[in-house]
Amino acid sequence: MKNEVTLPCVLQIGFAGARNLYGPKSVTEQQRACFDLQIEDYLVDVLRTFPSTLKAPANTFICGISQIAVGADTLFTKACSRARVLQCIFLPQPLDVYLSAEGSHGPDFSQHERDEAEKLLASKHIIHERIVSRARTRAERFQECNAEILRASDAVICLVYDNTDGKAGGTGELLASAKKRGRPTLEIRVAITPDQQLKIWSVRHDGAFLGGTLPKSISALTVSRDSDSLPTVAQFCSAVKDPSSKNAKRFSNLFSIAAVIIISTHIIATLCATIASIADVASKERVHFAGDELLVSRMLMAECALLIVGFATHLWIHKSPIKEKWALSRLLAEINRSVRSLGDLHIQLSYLFSLRLSAELRPLLKTLNILHLESTRSCALDNWSQLRDEYVHNRLEHPDPRKGQIKYYTNRCEAESKRLHFADSAFLFFSMLAIVATIAKVCVLLHVIKFDPSASAIWATVLEGAAILLPTLAVGAVSWAAAKEYNARVRSFHAVLTFLTSQTESLKNATSLSEFQRLVDETESMLLGETVEWYSRTQVLEAPLRMKV
After folding, report:
1. What is the DSSP string of 307-352?
2. Strands of 198-205's sheet, edge to edge?
3. Boundaries of CATH 3.40.50.450 in the chain?
4. Taking the CA atoms of the chain, what radius of gyration do you get in angstroms?
5. Which candidate among 89, 349, 417, 509 keeps its CA 20 to 30 Å from the CA of 359?
6. What pTM did the predictor assign?
7. Cα(83)–Cα(41) distance, integer angstroms
8. In terms of C-beta density within 10 A (0-12 exposed, 13-18 middle, 19 or more buried), how is residue 406 classed?
9. What's the count of helices (H) and strands (E) in the chain, helices before strands?
10. Sequence-separated (6 or more) residues with CB below 8 Å from residue 17
């Protein structure tokens, strides 16, 4: 059954726990199984109530982040499965090495524990495995893994045996780091009572909740999904991209209209002032007749009205958030277009987090990443060459410029180049006419060009008006080109087009899945980076205009 629900937002919960949950006390296998089940039940309850504990929005869903070590990590993974919580596994080294590693007390995994870990890794709720450390020593690898779990998490859960001290790379270190950074943390402790009963309690450490919500402009959007499942990443992206593209177009048109009003009102106001000046001089050089003073006054009133309209439009365009909304809408549309273009390629969307994006977009980026990993987790990767060919055709070489980026940037580069050339030509044309008018006026005043006295005065006035109006038209052409950023667009579009042309050949010649994934990451980073650069430039330019003096 399909339901319309608000867009979901992920809450990433990092987890770390002790390998030995029962301390130095010896427990029988039967007791261990009983205690493990009690802890697992406790973790299930925690996972189901944690969002409300953090006062997260109702549309929040959880993704756990942990290792897959014996002890607490194994219980957390089982609890995630029972609570129907998605999970990402962060590894300090390749999985086969991780499962066969040996510490100071012997192998980390017994054969039974290794079999259990491999079985859990095949569970449907685990959507991704990622190696997060390249350190040389064992201790450093586990430290880096903990640091990455903490960095990626909105909140943290730690499970330890009571009265145990943390060691480098262990749960205690992660717990201390989480509290030090002010991350919301739930510290769960277990102990065995003298009568051989398990005691479980928790201590909550409040902190700054980094989960947040989706950007306000899309938080009210809805998506159709099955009642008991998350929407696919394609459904989510379509729900965001389509309205964002429409909003971007609408705000862009409003900005263009405002720019036209500002420039045209000042040009026409200058024309009115010039006409008033000519009429005033002409009336003094000949017999006065009724209507001259009326014409002058009307032109001056029209000039004043036009200047007021242009000034008011200027204040509105810079005081209102229209350009900011335009930039954000376009950025949201391009982010979701980028993610949707990846299709069934199971890949961590690391390029989204490497770009310079504002903090308000982090919940959206995390949500897109998790939904993409969840939607593609079961996609076979043995046909990666087919995925590569589909990506190259649909994303880069498609003949429709709305889909194929090479065609899109080729068209945009040509169009913006023509507009830039037209604006430059208009500036040169009006500037040259202004120079000619000024020289002609000097020649009339010095009688190099001879007219009768009354005609000379009129011609001098007309040429003076041209010398005023024509530079204004030239500046108008430059102002329009600057407002539309023609020069920056041409340079940016040409750089992206050059990159895509070369990158397409590299993609076609990719010989392995890892190479293909790396090239896709580079391609999407470049494509989205062009929009991010424009977005960042817009925010930098707009921010000072909104500051209160």
Report:
1. HHHHHHHHHHHHHSSHHHHHHHHHHHHHHHHHHHTTTT-----HHH
2. 126-131, 86-91, 60-66, 9-17, 155-161, 185-192, 198-205
3. 2-205
4. 34
5. 89
6. 0.86
7. 10
8. buried
9. 16, 11
10. 66, 71, 72, 73, 75, 76, 158, 159, 160, 171
Listed in sequence order, the residues at least 6 apart from 355 whose beta carbon sits closer than 8 Å to its beta carbon are 525, 528, 529, 532
Q: Are 109 and 67 in contact (CB under 8 A)?
A: no
How confident is the model over 457-505, as pLDDT tens digits? 667 677 777 878 888 889 889 888 988 889 989 999 999 999 999 999 9
> Could you name the CATH architecture of 2-205?
3-Layer(aba) Sandwich (3.40)
* DSSP codes joined into one string, 22-52: TTTS---HHHHHHHHHHHHHHHHHHHHHHHH
- Tokens 């919500």, located at residue: 213
Structure tokens at 274: 């010039």
Tokens of 209: 């909740």
Q: What are phi and psi of 416, to 5 degrees?
A: -70, -35
Q: Between β-strands 198-205 and 185-192, what pairing exists: parallel, antiparallel or unpaired?
A: antiparallel
Q: Nearest Cα to 47, choosing from 71, 83, 88?
A: 83
Closest to 62 in 3D by CA, of 9, 19, 99: 9
The model's pLDDT over 373-402, given as tens digits with 9 standing for 90+, comes to: 999 998 867 789 999 999 999 999 999 998
Helix axis angle for 384-391 and 486-508, nearest 10°, is 150
- For tokens 């424009």, the residue is 534
d(CA 546, CA 549): 9
Q: How far is 326 from 348, CA to CA, in rounded Å?
A: 28
453-483 and 233-285 are packed helices; what angle lies between their axes, rounded to 10 degrees? 170
Q: Are 352 and 521 in contact (CB under 8 A)?
A: no
User: How far apart are alpha carbons 452 and 454 in whole angstroms?
Assistant: 6
The residue ranges of the chain whose pLDDT is under 70 are: 1-2, 24-25, 104, 164-169, 210-211, 226-227, 280-293, 380, 445, 447, 449-458, 460, 540-549
d(CA 451, CA 243): 65
Q: How far apart are CA 52 and CA 59, in angstroms?
A: 11
Report the alpha-carbon distance of residue 89 to residue 99 in Å, rounded: 13
